[in-house]
Design brief:
Strand order of the largest sheet: 2-1-5-4-3
CATH topology of the largest domain: Beta-Lactamase
Order of helices and strands: HHEEHHHEHEEHHEEHEEEHHHHH
Shape: elongated
Distance between the termini: 71 Å
Number of helices: 14
CATH architecture of the largest domain: 2-Layer Sandwich
CATH class of the largest domain: Alpha Beta
Largest sheet: 5 strands, antiparallel
Number of strands: 10
Structural class: alpha+beta
Length: 340
């Protein structure tokens, strides 16, 4: 693709700016009174407006909610994988709630919408164009938008960059996008897995290390899913647009505990990294202080450390942090244990 569209689609600016530039370029070729792009957020499972040119707020709220779930024109596009549809392309559409209750009261007399879907079938969002003149959008305008639809989807895909990061850093890992509440969306299965991990486990992984009450914020934690040990890499992300729910990327691989470290030694090392004394660790794990001390000594020997402090430092650098222990500590801060 050449010209203005090509310049925008090849741009490295953020999603929000790119969407604005796409609509600016489109408005120079296709007539409109208002236009907007909403991205599909697969974590929150909702549409989010990233650019709005002249739609009233109540119209955008409608387009991102009722329209997506109930409008017959949008449903026709979704079921039949169609391109852009105008009101006049759909029988009796002018008598629907969208037109009589929302668009016409806002001053629009014709319009179209198009789902933005990538080549692999991933829904990236929706573009809307409305006019106060029933002659527009014209057939040429529809063709213009349909020509752009696939390229726009590829550029605005919520999960494109996280998937690329996952592929670069851990090509065999199962990759998950998560928000600040622990809600998740599977980005890639990973060759080491026959099925997706339990979303509840993924939520626990996310909140144990990135929640506001987490005692540590390690980049790597270790979990056991009942089958094998998991190496979990936690990557925080910066917002890419207003309302962006992506909070972190989790890259999960199957990997045994290294250096001969046992599960109990992993627990002890994690509690030590949280600043607990040997007596604190013993009380937490319901073992004697002497046993807790032995676990620390064994870990020091296995990691080739010189003392407890260097052992904890090496454990952190090796990602020898129990996610389950962190999850339990976080839960205790939120819901303190009641003494008997």
């Amino acid at each position: 693709m050449t010209g203005t569209y090509g310049q925008v689609l090849d741009s490295t600016v953020d999603i929000e700016t790119r969407a604005h530039e796409l609509l600016d370029a489109l408005s120079a070729r296709a007539r409109s009174s208002a236009s907007a792009i909403s991205l599909w957020d697969p974590i929150a499972r909702t549409h989010v407006t990233v650019v709005n040119h002249d739609y009233p707020e109540q119209v955008m709220n409608h387009l991102n909610t009722w329209f997506i779930d109930h409008d017959p024109l949008y449903d026709e596009m979704r079921r039949k994988n169609l391109g852009a549809l105008r009101w006049r392309d759909f029988p009796n559409y002018r008598s629907t709630y969208s037109v009589t209750g929302v668009f016409r009261p806002a001053g629009f007399d014709e319009g179209l919408s198009a789902r933005l879907v990538t080549a692999d079938g991933t829904l990236a969002g929706t573009i809307h164009v409305n006019c106060d003149d029933p002659r527009y959008p014209s057939d040429d305008d529809v063709a213009e938008i349909n020509m752009l639809r696939r390229q726009m989807a590829e550029q605005l895909d919520f999960s494109l960059r996280p998937r690329l990061v996952a592929e670069l850093l851990a090509p065999d890992a199962q990759a998950w996008a998560v928000d600040g509440l622990g809600r998740s969306h599977l980005l890639r299965m990973g060759s080491g897995f026959e099925a997706p991990l339990d979303p509840a486990l993924i939520a626990e992984m996310a909140t144990a290390t990135r929640g506001p009450m987490s005692p540590l914020r390690p980049e790597v934690t270790r979990w056991h899913d009942g089958t094998s040990w998991l190496h979990v890499r936690h990557l925080s992300t910066a917002p890419r647009y207003r309302g962006d729910s992506l909070h972190a990327l989790l890259l999960v691989s199957r990997a045994d505990l290294p250096m001969g470290i046992t599960p109990r030694e992993l627990d002890v090392l994690t509690l030590a990294a949280c600043g607990m004394t040997t007596n604190d660790i013993a009380a937490r794990l319901f073992i004697s202080a002497r046993t807790a001390g032995h676990h620390i000594e064994n870990a020091i020997a296995k990691l080739g450390a010189t003392n407890r402090a260097s052992c904890v430092s090496l454990a952190m650098s090796w990602g020898l942090v129990s996610g389950r222990v962190l999850a339990e500590l976080t839960a205790d801060v939120i819901h303190p244990r009641q003494s008997a």
